[in-house]
Design a protein that fits this description.
single chain, 305 residues, alpha/beta, 6-stranded parallel β-sheet, 6-stranded antiparallel beta barrel, 33% helix
Length: 305
């Protein structure tokens, strides 16, 4: 997959089969669009092009600093690489760019700069200034500018329409299994291992404290989770706690993972955690011994899950 930091960096190609959108999460609905994109490209001997944006338009247009994203920029790149996209354009989103009318976006961006011959969009897709453009507009523009357009119908999982919003809601409740069903892959967190207070060592459950560097990254609900920890191209079993550690009178939220059967110094290293299932809510115990007994039960759950 070739990656471009802006539309200007992309050289127009013949027979470009294109889709566009934010693609947060690269969920099963997105993957259906990409599958169809690849099918069309194969049938016409074309190349797939995905145009997306960074930062997220809502952050720019509405100063939505509280918006949480399912995937970081790097996570999205890897998921799209795995999906088999040929060309990925990540265009810097700005207020000036948002003022392009729907016809300017189609004519100047999709046609003149990318070379779109086929366009595939998701259900209820809108584009251009004030989201004025729609599938109906695209059907009108297609014959004028020499491209064909296809809309993918709403995708369902167990009769529930899949959307990035519903995935965020599942994560907000700690329901990482439902999030996985919607995503088509495990939810993940990546961060640096930083120094903690070493309280876990005292009770035989040392933890790696994870600092997530992207302020807009979605963090699941407080609680304890069964996870897989990926580092050095290996995966390890783990149990992860998100919360304030009430048993030791904690105040600030932390993300800590105990890696099963692992005892190496990994301070300063980047690790990725893949969420498997919810174990329990975070709770306050009478003392550290009571916490240790619960952690032993949590470990058995992880080993047997």
């Amino acid at each position: 997959m070739k990656i471009y930091s802006s539309i200007e960096a992309f050289k127009k190609i013949e027979n470009a089969v294109v889709t566009t959108g934010t693609f947060d999460g690269v969920h099963v609905g997105h993957l259906t669009i990409i599958k169809r994109l690849k099918e069309i490209a194969d049938s016409v001997n074309g190349e797939t092009v995905l145009l997306t944006f960074s930062p997220h338009p809502r952050i720019v247009l509405f100063s939505d600093n509280d918006l949480k994203l399912i995937t970081t920029k790097n996570e999205k790149i890897e998921l799209l690489r795995n999906a088999g996209i040929d060309h990925l354009i990540i265009h810097p989103f700005s207020r000036a760019f948002s003022r392009l009318s729907s016809v300017e976006f189609v004519r100047d961006i999709l046609v003149n700069k990318i070379g779109t011959s086929r366009l595939v969009i998701g259900y209820n897709h809108h584009f251009g200034r004030n989201r004025e453009g729609s599938f109906e507009h695209l059907k009108e523009y297609g014959p004028l500018y020499g491209f064909q357009v296809e809309e993918i119908s709403a995708q369902d999982v167990d009769a529930v329409s899949v959307s990035s919003t519903k995935i965020r809601q599942a994560l907000d409740s700690g329901d990482v299994k439902t999030a996985k069903e919607y995503l088509g892959h495990r939810f993940q967190l990546t961060g640096l291992v930083v120094k903690g207070k070493n309280l876990g060592h005292k009770i035989g459950f040392p933890t790696a404290n994870i600092q997530v560097l992207d302020a807009h990254k979605q963090i699941p609900a407080n609680g304890v989770y069964a996870v897989r920890v990926c580092m050095h191209q290996k995966e390890y079993l783990g149990m992860l706690n998100i919360g304030v550690r009430p048993t030791v009178a904690g105040v600030e939220k932390t993300i800590e993972v105990h890696i099963v059967d692992f005892d190496s110094d990994i301070y300063g290293e980047e690790i990725t955690v893949f969420f498997e299932s919810w174990i329990r809510k975070e709770q306050k115990f009478e003392n550290l011994e009571a916490l240790k007994k619960q952690l032993e039960k949590d470990k058995l759950y992880v080993l047997n899950s």
